[in-house]
Design goal:
The chain is 47% helix and 20% strand. It is an alpha/beta fold. Bound molecules: alpha-D-galactopyranose. Alpha-D-galactopyranose (GLA) binds next to strand 5 and strand 9.
Length: 329
């Protein structure tokens, strides 16, 4: 072997080792979301990035819209040196597969928003989770709707309660059941509650279809109150009511998220969308990313179950509240 090569080989080995050390110094985490185009998830990413800048780690933001994308992303994360990830899964039933793949790749996992469901149909309580207090926030939606019914002096006998459901997702089922429970507890007739199940994904067009099907079945109802799993569900229903000529003042909708209804609240003229419960995208994005970072860096295990709350925003209050939350300028 010539002497140049003998010198070069140890030098290259040293360079590779140093390169490896430099990478290892930077903690990398993934942040996977099921609907990357939705404002809610974009805000989670924005706040995760804030945590990364503040603490000096890297966030790989990945739109994981189906099971295949999730599983491929987990392999890619491991290959690129990440040690953990936060995920809002596109399907809660993927939980066991996500955990198996993560264990095989030695990656830590925090589920955000949508809690994994095990093969027994129960929440996977051993997986770290941060989500909303779904039933409580649902209760607040039901109460708010009934307060508006009373404030407007409506006769409940003429009112239908349209509930945009998506029972495949437990957090959504808890929200809608919570809304029904509270409305009925404050005097709304249970037999005037009508559920509109949304097919597949909770988006405005799918909600609009579900609401139209329901409205066709109840042509004589004069006034409507509307609840749903999130803003998009309620907005779809409001568009369906408008399409059928229901007057703005004859319907009241209250959403959940508060992030996906901002253009609606900004409209020059009010629609039947009365308001929404603003959730804390900041806690869901910033806090989960920070928890993951500290878990990797210091071995500080996050709590198994963290719940966040919501605040009512309406056309009158949303600008100030969004500003206070760091969502609007
Ligand atoms: C679910 C919904 C989202 C949002 C989050 C909040 O994932 O699909 O729109 O409401 O919960 O946790």
């Amino acid at each position: 072997m010539d002497c140049r090569k003998t010198l070069l080989i140890p030098f290259l080995a040293l360079a590779v080792t140093l390169g490896g050390l430099a990478d290892a110094g930077q903690i990398k985490i993934g942040f996977l979301v099921k609907q990357p185009e939705e404002p809610w998830f974009q805000l989670e990413w924005k706040f995760a990035d804030q945590a990364a800048t503040e603490f000096g780690f890297e966030v790989m933001k990945i739109g994981a819209t189906d099971g295949e994308k999730v599983l491929t992303a987990i392999d890619n994360l491991a290959a690129s040196g990440a040690q953990g990830f936060v995920i809002c899964t596109p399907d809660v039933l993927l939980g066991p597969a996500i955990m198996a793949k993560s264990r095989a790749n030695n990656l830590k996992v925090i589920a955000v928003d949508d809690r994994f469901v095990g093969p027994d149909g129960k929440d996977m309580e051993s997986v770290h989770y941060l989500g909303i207090s779904a039933r409580k926030i649902g209760n607040e939606v039901g109460k708010t709707l009934m307060e508006q019914v009373k404030a407007r002096g409506w006769n409940v006998a003429e009112v239908g309660f349209m509930v945009m459901t998506f029972d495949e997702l437990p957090t959504i089922q808890d929200r809608t059941e919570g809304a029904i429970e509270a409305a009925v507890a404050t005097g709304f007739p249970a037999d005037q509650v009508y559920k509109a199940p949304i097919q597949q994904r909770m988006e405005i067009p799918t909600a609009l279809d579900a609401a139209n099907t329901l409205l066709t079945r109840h042509p004589t109802v004069k006034k409507w109150i509307v609840a749903g799993g999130n803003d998009s569900c309620v907005l779809g229903a409001i568009r369906a009511l408008e399409g059928r000529g229901v007057k703005v003042e004859d319907a009241i909708g209250v959403g959940i998220n508060g992030t996906d209804c901002i253009p609606e609240l900004e409209k020059a003229n009010p629609t039947s969308f009365y308001g929404s419960f603003l959730l804390s995208a900041r806690e869901h994005g910033y806090l989960t990313a920070k928890m993951m970072y500290e878990w990797i860096k210091d071995g500080k295990e996050p709590p198994l179950d963290t719940r966040t709350v919501g605040t009512l925003i309406t056309r009158d209050t949303f600008r100030q509240i969004l500003k206070d939350e760091g969502i609007a300028d």
